[in-house]
């Protein structure tokens, strides 16, 4: 019974995380962590480590799918990734020097609001409009936005995937599919960095739970990414919005239980 219960919990955790990753570049940690903590009574630090490691392959396969469909900006993604990684460290250092504040609900709240935004005001930017921005200006924008995302994520400790999607679509003017593809590309490396550091500090995880989360998240991320790349912009905006709103409400419920 315990094994079956574990499989069910990890299946639904992986499904939520995979759909969020494939559709919107959302971090798996936002979904998997609260479910492992609430239902399997797992140590929070280890739960985050498992969630981040699940995010690595899910984000990688999603990024590959978006790249295969020419919906990934690798050059500016790499530029932004370096800025994000560097200033995540800076943000973490600053956070350690100031009085602590409860910011845990930031990522969940952003997930819900971003979902509503995609439903009410869909992103209808075209690739032609994206290409109208000069390469130099795009590179500078990527650095500045990467600094902002990294610092806030390091300071608050959450919300990276959602912030990237919001900034890529609303500030940098990316077409939705390219924004998600670039976001999951960056998240592959940030999740890998986080997972390795968690396991180095906290030790080896429960390998059974880890394997289930990795497989289920990978499966659903692949399904979501394939669907997203075939969908028309209006359908994709609506589907992405619904997924984010549902996940936001569900995660708020899990956080309330914990």
TrEMBL record:
> Keywords in UniProt for this one?
Cell membrane, Membrane, Transmembrane, Transmembrane helix
Q: Where is the signal peptide?
A: none
Major location, coarse class? Answer: membrane
- Quote the subcellular location field of this record: Cell membrane; Membrane
Ranges annotated as spanning the membrane? 45-66, 78-95, 101-120, 140-167, 179-200, 207-227, 239-257
Q: How does it sit in the membrane?
A: Multi-pass membrane protein
Please state which protein family the record places this protein in.
Answer: Belongs to the 4-toluene sulfonate uptake permease (TSUP) (TC 2.A.102) family.
| Identification of the protein by name | Probable membrane transporter protein
């Amino acid at each position: 019974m315990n094994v079956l219960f574990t499989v069910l919990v990890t299946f639904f955790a992986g499904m939520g995380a995979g759909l969020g990753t494939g559709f919107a570049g959302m971090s798996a940690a936002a979904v998997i962590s609260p479910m492992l903590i609430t239902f399997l009574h797992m140590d929070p630090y280890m739960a985050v480590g498992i969630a981040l490691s699940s995010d690595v392959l899910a984000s990688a396969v999603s990024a590959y799918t978006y790249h295969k469909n020419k919906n990934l900006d690798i050059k500016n993604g790499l530029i932004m990734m370096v800025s994000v990684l560097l200033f995540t460290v800076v943000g973490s250092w600053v956070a350690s020097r100031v009085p602590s504040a409860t910011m845990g609900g930031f990522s969940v709240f952003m997930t819900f609001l971003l979902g509503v935004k995609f439903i009410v005001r869909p992103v209808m930017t075209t690739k032609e409009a994206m290409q109208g921005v000069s390469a130099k200006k795009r590179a500078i924008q990527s650095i500045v936005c990467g600094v902002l995302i990294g610092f806030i994520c390091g300071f608050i400790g959450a919300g990276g995937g959602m912030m990237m999607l919001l900034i890529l679509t609303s500030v940098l003017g990316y077409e939705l599919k390219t924004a998600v593809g670039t976001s999951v590309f960056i998240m592959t490396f940030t999740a890998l960095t986080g997972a390795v550091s968690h396991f180095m500090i906290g030790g080896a995880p429960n390998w059974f739970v880890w394997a289930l989360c990795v497989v289920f998240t990978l499966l659903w991320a692949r399904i979501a990414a394939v669907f997203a790349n075939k969908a028309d912009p209006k359908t994709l905006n609506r589907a992405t919005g619904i997924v984010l709103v549902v996940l936001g409400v569900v995660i708020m419920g899990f956080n309330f239980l914990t």
